[in-house]
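Researcher: Watch the backbone:
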Amino acid sequence: MAHKHHGAVQEVHSKELPAMNEMNMTPMIDVLLVLLVIFMAALPLAQKGIDVNLPAETRTAQQQQVDISQIVLEYTPNRQISINKQDVTILELEDRLRDIYDERNDKTMFIAAAGNLRYGEIVEVIDAAKGAGVEKVGIVTEGMRAAGAAGDGLTGAE
């Protein structure tokens, strides 16, 4: 009896593949992409910030008249602090603000600081204000002071 073949009549052999000297990058790229997704998902949880109320637009000098009930803290380039034109040191700042805000309903303070001060110095003042009970801190920008140079009390040009 003859031998029956089911399928191919000829037997085909392939040549032997040479060994590769390069590393397979696909698994490493997969791992990096997974790590990237994990860090991107965890990033918003690690962010901290301070809520500040920035002005929506610059008002005219007539609209910027200082209300006597507003508390304005000025921080000069030579690191002198004053609250409504009364000098205070950084060490007594929190106690002084606590005395002011204990009897006030409006717990808003405005900070007019020099542009050359370091961010950490401003944050130190904001921390003291928050510790004294200030709920809202408004930042008076240099542009606002320049627009209100007509003597409204918020300018640094006096």
User: Anything to note?
Assistant: Confidence is low (pLDDT under 50) at residues 61-67, 152-158. The helical segments are 26-46, 93-102, 119-131, 142-147.
